[in-house]
C-alpha cells in the first residue's frame, strides 16, 4: 500500500519503520513544518492515511482525507468530543475511518479483560475502584484516550459507577468524589510510554490489573495492521472491530 503519514513526530517515524518493513511505501509525510502540503492532490497519491498528529490538528486532517476520499486510520486522541459529528460526516459522505484510543494488541486484550473483571466485581460491593494512568510529559491530553476507554468499559459493566472524573496530579482538584463516580488519576512523568492500572480496593486487600507499554512500537505496529485491515472496506470503525474476543 501507499501510505500518507499525518504527523511525523516520534510516533510517525516508528509507524514509517514498521510500514516499510511490511512492504508498504510512504508517499507523503505531513508535520507542523509542511502543513501546506496537506492537499487533496497529494493525499490522492496514497491508498490510506495514518494520523498520529495532535488533538488540534486531527479534525482538519480527517476532513482533508474525507475531501480526498482517502481512508484514514486515526491514532490521535483528544478530539473525541467531536466523534459523533465526524462519524456522521464519514457515513454521509461514504468515507472510511478507523479510530482507536490505543492500537496495541496487548492493550486491546486489556480492554476486554477489564470489562470481564468489572462485570464480575458487581458481586463484590466492598471494593472501590479507580483508574490510574501514567504518560510522558509530552502527552497533551488528560486523561489519556486509553484511560477513558478503560473507564467507559468499567462504567458499562459495573452497576455502581455511572460517570468518570479526572484528576491530573500536580494541578488543582477540588471535586468531592461521589460514590457513583469513577476517578481517573493522571500522572505526567518523563519517558513513560504509557501505563494503565485498574485498582479495586477494600479494607482488607487490593487488586491491581495493569498494562505497561515498554515502548511505542506496539502502538505503531497496530496502526499499520489496522491500515491493512481497512483495505477494501468502507464505513466508520473502531480498533476493537479488528479483534474477536468472543
UniProtKB/TrEMBL annotation:
Keyword Coiled coil tagged: no
Residue ranges of domain Dihydrodipicolinate reductase C-terminal in the record: 106-242
Protein's job: Catalyzes the conversion of 4-hydroxy-tetrahydrodipicolinate (HTPA) to tetrahydrodipicolinate.
GO BP term, pick one: diaminopimelate biosynthetic process
Native source species: Pedobacter metabolipauper
Broad class of where this protein is predominantly found: cytoplasm
UniProt xrefs under InterPro entries: DapB_C (IPR022663), DapB_N (IPR000846), DHDPR_bac (IPR023940), NAD(P)-bd_dom_sf (IPR036291)
Keywords: Amino-acid biosynthesis, Cytoplasm, Diaminopimelate biosynthesis, Lysine biosynthesis, NAD, NADP, Oxidoreductase
Protein name per Swiss-Prot or TrEMBL: 4-hydroxy-tetrahydrodipicolinate reductase
A GO term for molecular function: 4-hydroxy-tetrahydrodipicolinate reductase
Every Dihydrodipicolinate reductase N-terminal domain range: 1-102
